[in-house]
Amino acid sequence: MTPPETPTGYRQPTRFHYSSLLLGVLSAIVFAASAIGFGGLLWFFQGKPEELTISISISSGRDFLPLFAGLGVFVGTLVVHEAIHGFVFRRLGYRVSYGFEPRIPALYTVAFGQFVTRRDNMLVDVAPLAAMTLVGIPLLAGPMPIALAAYFALLVNTSGAVGDLYLLWRLWRMPSETVLYDTDFRHSYVFEPTNDTAIGVGKP
């Protein structure tokens, strides 16, 4: 896919891409750190467990309920994460596209075919991690089934936000008037201003 025409006051675009290997390694590290950190909070709120018993049984359909519940929390966390991205995008005035990329695999929320400012990208990126963490941590003090569901959701959300945090870090190092443009899921372009006084690109 070819990039859009370069706006006045901006340099020729550069491609933006994620390193699958890097994100995979970082996700594993963040997952482990989150498991310890949120596990410590769970222990603080719930107290030290006297006994931990793990059992697997397939004698009846009821025995699959924990598995189905875990799967529901996993999928629900991913959907809510992307919905928050989309909500912030729409509040900022962008048209939003949702989808699933099977080659990764991953859900995505993108403002295709639009110039998105650095500031707006940063707000969209950080929103799910901030919102779901603020909601999830107090739930660790609730009844044990809710606390365990919140713990799992926090792990999924935090490790799944590695890509968002990576983009946030990259954007932080770019000029304030930088804009990004996604032509499709695999083609993203960065337009940096020719100088610090560039006006920038407005929303469609």
UniProtKB/TrEMBL annotation:
Keyword Mitochondrion: no
Hydrolase keyword on record: no
Top-level taxon of origin: Archaea
Keywords: Membrane, Transmembrane, Transmembrane helix
Stated name of the protein: Putative zincin peptidase
Transmembrane segments: 21-45, 65-89, 122-140, 146-169
